[in-house]
Design a protein that fits this description.
single chain; alpha+beta; D-amino Acid Aminotransferase, Chain A, domain 1; five-stranded parallel sheet; nine-stranded antiparallel sheet; Dna Ligase, domain 1; 412 residues; Rossmann fold; globular
Amino acid sequence: MPKGPTIVYVSREIERTLGKAPAADYRIVTNRTSYGESVKEQYPDFVTLIDLPDGMPAGKLLGTTDLLNHQATKDLIANISPTPQILVFKNTSRVETAALANGWTLLNPKAALSEEVENKMTQVAWLGELGKKYLPANEIKLCKDLKWNGQTRIVQWAHGHTGGGTMLINSEGDLKAIQEKFPNRMARSTEYILGPSFTVSAVVADGKVFVGNPSYQITGIPPFTDNPLTTIGNDWSVSFDLLSHAELGEAEAMAGEIGRKLNASGWKGLFGIDLIYDTTRGRIFLIEINARQPASVTLESVFQQKNRDLGVAGLTIFEAHLKALKGEPADQPLIPINDGAQIVQRVTLFTKRASAAVSMALIAQGYTVVSYENTEPNADLMRIQSDKGIMERHAKFNKRGKEIEETLSLNN
């Protein structure tokens, strides 16, 4: 029998939930997809797949709130005793309303805090002195009031995801184009920094901050995406070549300071920061805070579990997340990793669907492949995972990365 209440993780995409294997004390509710069906075959009693309603367009999935309000979810939760606790990928006011209406306990931190920290406008004020310490030079104004100063800039709206809502401004014409379209939208304009970017996931647990393993962000490489600012993957091996020991320490210290500020604001569980190394000035800047479970956490936890199987002691970052949310003490360090990668083929102008033949070819080459039925531009089509790194250096694939790239060219 499970100890304490069962957790039911309700998520639009099943991949986000798999930092821990489904079990009697950890159940999953998600959309019915081909990948979801393969997971359910392994864990038939602990995965609930919800069919899309009739008439829903191909490639569309039910959102988290729709899944929470679905009768199948309500029936599942009603039949688990004691009443389970609910976990979602990212909390929102709609999710909170649905949980409250059904009398369920939601484990995630408050949606209002997540919004304050993630919103590009309120984030600067929330950071306060830490913003002055870590953020690149920036200004927040109505879009129509931004001025072209002859230097490349990044302009962002309040919200974005994996590069969406982020624009590279290379000329006065670029700026005028968005000003004409969105003159009265608030924007954050930030100096453009040239260099590699990284993700660091961390957990606020038991009054402490547990900092995960830094991964290099693979960004904007065609044919994986049409958007030069879109994150398309993570590599946990090349980070140690691109950053010195001292710089890795600076990244860990930054995550720790932000985590302690989150803790003081009432946060618990996972968050992530995106960093960029300024090759001109030789220093690290903060470019993003994700007040939620970072997307790379699932695979980081899988790699940590593999290291534990080899005798390395400690917690996976997802296990630390669950302990934090349940209020349990996290009394072991996180398991270190220094290898492995994933890269995502997104929907592009020339790649509209995932090819079964390409997927089979990649699997035969030793990679793990998850395919999606998404149709929206820049949405995930195929997630390719490797136990070894795929990057040789910043923006350059090694032999494995080139093999993936060449195999995917068959899909275009």
